[in-house]
Amino acid sequence: MVQSPNRCSFAARDKLATGYWQLATDFKLADFAVRVEQSRGRRHPEPSHAYRNDFQRDRDRVVHARAFRRLEAKTQVFTRRYSDHFRNRLTHTIEVAQISRTIAAQLGLNADLVEALALVHDIGHPPFGHAGEKALDAAMRQHGLSFDHNLHALRIVEDFELRYAAFRGLNLTFEVREGIIKHSHDYDAREHPELAEYLLDQRPPLEAQLIDLTDEIAYNTADLDDGCEAHLLSVEQIAESVEIFGDCYKDVRKLYPAAAEKLQFNEALKRIFDRLVGDLIANTRARIAEAGAHSLEDVRRYPERLAAFSAKVEEQRRQLKDFLYENLYFSPALEGEKEDAERIVGELFAHWMKEPEDLPRTYREKAEREPLPRIICDYIAGMTDPFIYQQYEKYCGE
């Protein structure tokens, strides 16, 4: 039978579609962007996928990971005692991914890598937000160790996630693992010889540099929103103390004088958001040009990170962040919850140090090969807020 000239085989069609997709992707990438075909690869080699590139596969592996799902029940700033409308670690992460993709597209960066890094950037956080992290680090330091959520995230994707028969962990590409480590912190190779493979003497790619800044854009604007919703901040207080908000709010009141205060507040937040994003795009683009960065190697070898806000907007960002620390994060209204979080983490950690037989079997087995404090830290860091409350009632409740 003669095949219709309007039909083609699945293989030919897929090859054609892949070719168009590859041309479209390459056309958008700047010379200094990370190219997936030049990836340093995975620890365990895998065959190419039929219709997803390696960074897209990494993104999808993160989304399907148990540790990613647990972010939904981990505190960002507010527990559900206030409301179930507030951001949690998962919704915050989704917001960071949205901002990051937008900026990456404007700068000609690899949006697939950026999205994977944005989705994985908070995966190592323990329960109870920064209070939980502080308490966990304090408990570890009593044993000459420490807790770092970036390093813990690497342990999660390298070892803890068990989804594949051929290897432990998610077997992510080098570029995603490097970004987990270096997106927000520069580690000293002398202090962390175990991280030597991650080019600690070089800057991370721009795709990773973006994440720390988009993280701040997301939580600075979101925390103003949630802080007002919780009635811990007032619109007038923010307008008087935060220049960037005051400017935007004044413009909005002129434009929408009859609108409800909440809607005026929302419009002001949107303008702050756009100002921060727009400035980051424009200033990073200018810094790249000024540095003469024409390749990924140029970005890596530059003496400092190229992704940055302008001096004026950086000053406004710092003022906003300082305001949030002084008036929200250390608010007396939240102090009780932070004290509870630190007590729960500390007492549970101490209990399992004295009674390691109360740990789950898999953690007891790992403690035969690694220090017990590290194993307890791993267990607590992976917990959601509801689960750690259950464990506390079980082992430490009166």
Q: Could you explain how this protein is built, in words?
A:
The protein is mainly α. It has one domain (12-41, 52-395): Hypothetical protein af1432 (Orthogonal Bundle). 62% of the residues lie in helices and 0% in strands. The protein is built from 18 helices and no strands. It has helices at 10-28, 54-63, 66-70, 89-107, 111-120, 129-141, 149-160, 174-182, 206-229, 235-241, 243-255, 261-291, 296-301, 311-329, 332-354, 361-366, 372-381, 385-395. Helix 6 runs parallel beside helix 15. The protein starts with 9 loop residues before the first helix and ends with a helix. The relative contact order is 0.12.
List the helices and strands and how they pair.
Blueprint: H1 10-28, H2 54-63, H3 66-70, H4 89-107, H5 111-120, H6 129-141, H7 149-160, H8 174-182, H9 206-229, H10 235-241, H11 243-255, H12 261-291, H13 296-301, H14 311-329, H15 332-354, H16 361-366, H17 372-381, H18 385-395
Helix pairs in contact: 2-5, 4-5, 4-9, 4-12, 5-8, 5-9, 6-15, 6-17, 7-8, 9-12, 9-14, 10-11, 11-12, 15-17, 15-18
Task: Describe the structure using short key phrases.
globular; Hypothetical protein af1432; 398 residues; single chain; mainly alpha
Summarize the structure.
This protein has one domain (12-41, 52-395): Hypothetical protein af1432, CATH 1.10.3210.
Number of helices: 18
Radius of gyration using CA atoms only: 23 Å
Give the low-pLDDT segments.
Answer: 1-26
Total strand count, please? 0
Annotated CATH topology: Hypothetical protein af1432
Top CATH class: Mainly Alpha
User: CATH-wise, what's the superfamily?
Assistant: Hypothetical protein af1432
User: What is the structural class?
Assistant: mainly alpha
Which percent bin holds the helix content?
55-70%
Cα separation of the termini: 81 Å
Strand content: under 5%
CATH-level-2 architecture: Orthogonal Bundle
Quickly count the domains: 1
Shape: globular
Strand and helix order: HHHHHHHHHHHHHHHHHH
Chain-averaged pLDDT? 91
Biggest sheet record: none
